[in-house]
Amino acid sequence: MPLHKPQDLPTHIQHFIDGEYTDSVSGKRFDVLEPVENSVYATAAAGQKEDVDRAVAAARRAFTDGPWPTLLPRERSHVLHRIADLVEASDARLAELETFDTGLPVTQALGQAQRAAENFRFFADLVVAQADDVYKMPGKQMNYVNRSPIGVAGLITPWNTPFMLESWKLAPALATGNTVVLKPAEFTPLSASLWAGIFREAGVPDGVFNLVNGMGEEAGDALVKHPDVPLISFTGESGTGSLIFGNAAPYLKGLSMELGGKSPAIVFADADFDAAIDATLFGVFSLNGERCTAGSRILVEQSIYDRFVETYAARAEKIVVGHPHDPRTEVGALVHPEHYAKVLSYVELGKQEGRLVAGGGKPEGLEQGNYLRPTVFADVPSSARIFQEEIFGPVVAITPFADDKEALSLANDVKYGLAAYLWTQDLRRAHNFASQVEAGMVWLNSNNVRDLRTPFGGVKASGLGHEGGYRSIDFYTNQQAVHITLGESHSVRFGAGV
């Protein structure tokens, strides 16, 4: 199948600052690749410190002088609903561009575009329903909480499902009255460039939304260190998160960081076997395995271990790897040759650390491009690097356990703590295990279906803080407690004598 090129594909992607498309002050650019042939299809403006300075200044003016922060929540909600409508109306086009840019299967990219619209609709409703806290002591005191937007939010987003993850940050930041500077991942700037037109058509004032493309060590670093950016929301790998934490510390910035994961899926002998097979296959191989919550370590009780490995490997071999725009494709092309090389290095390592039972190389007929057959290693010890380190691709490690105690020990024996998946019919075990596993999110007999009202985030090296629902409202607002005395004021009378 030849490379599918969407119509009207841009050949150059610019920044968007203060309502205008613009190149970098320096004129610097970088090449943008598609992952099927690894050909350069566009250049993008490479943001430097001076470009971030311009974007932050525009966002600061829009915050201090513009109407956006002082609009009634209902007025901002109307704009956010228009954004959601526009995203929904163009979901097929968004999916086509996202697939071209990232290599995600088009059917999965379409679901991500629709989720992006739902993110805006959710926060449009939530900001109107938000009730400030009031605490009363009748006849004595009343206490209430005022909320206000904080200022310019710096949003740094990753290259996996970029459009949806951008919406996950943009929606609550804007709903609460902040202005933003978005720095999308340099691998995948295409879909991010669409936000400017969507926001303009929806009626977002100039300067409220600004976008600066570029490298993390240049544009991202300048955004993190900018003194007029009090908030940074970052999604990415843990090493970069640690660097951002250190660079933001001198400015005492508010930080929300969703970082890497090496999430366990624990399958007990009493589990619904077929459901567990379906879920654990989808949980690591959907989105090309390039997902932070992937269940990339599968821990299986010894009595069903051989059956599980045999069934799992056979199903993995039947997963359809193909061109991302083919609706039959289940696993597409990995995002970039640099990342592809990293994933392949782990596959080669895994051949020494475990038993290869499926995949391990390119599919037939797809020798060009960043394609990898779903790869399954069994008998992987907990000391193995493929057990301990985030691979972020269609690669999974399967490990046996003898009892609940060993399962918990294996589950917690990594530096990460983002998600965990537990398959058992024993509800007592399920709830006790969930309370002891070191993970910010746990799914019991379920696969990554999340209510948007619930907190999203991890523990240990998987993150700092939580977003989602009211946690996002908390992150993007200042909270001021006001205390009122309703009766007589009783104070110790210093200096009044005996």
What topology emerges from the helices and strands here?
Layout: E1 12-13, E2 15-17, E3 20-22, E4 29-33, E5 40-45, H1 49-64, H2 73-89, H3 91-102, H4 106-129, E6 134-137, E7 141-149, E8 152-156, H5 162-175, E9 179-183, H6 194-202, E10 209-211, H7 216-225, E11 231-235, H8 238-248, E12 254-258, E13 264-267, H9 273-285, E14 297-301, H10 302-318, H11 337-353, E15 355-358, E16 375-378, H12 385-388, E17 395-401, H13 404-412, E18 416-417, E19 419-423, H14 427-436, E20 441-444, E21 459-460, E22 463-464, H15 470-475, E23 477-485
Parallel strand pairs: 1-5, 8-9, 8-11, 9-10, 11-12, 13-14, 13-19, 14-17, 16-17, 19-20
Antiparallel strand pairs: 2-3, 4-5, 6-7, 7-23, 12-22, 15-16, 18-21
Helix-strand makeup class: alpha/beta
> Span from first to last CA?
95 Å
What would the average pLDDT be, to the nearest integer?
96
Alpha carbon gyration radius: 24 Å
Give the total of beta strands.
Answer: 23
Poorly predicted runs are none
Give the percentage of residues in beta strands. Answer: 15-25%
State the major sheet.
Answer: 7 strands, mixed
The strand line-up of the biggest sheet is: 15-16-17-14-13-19-20
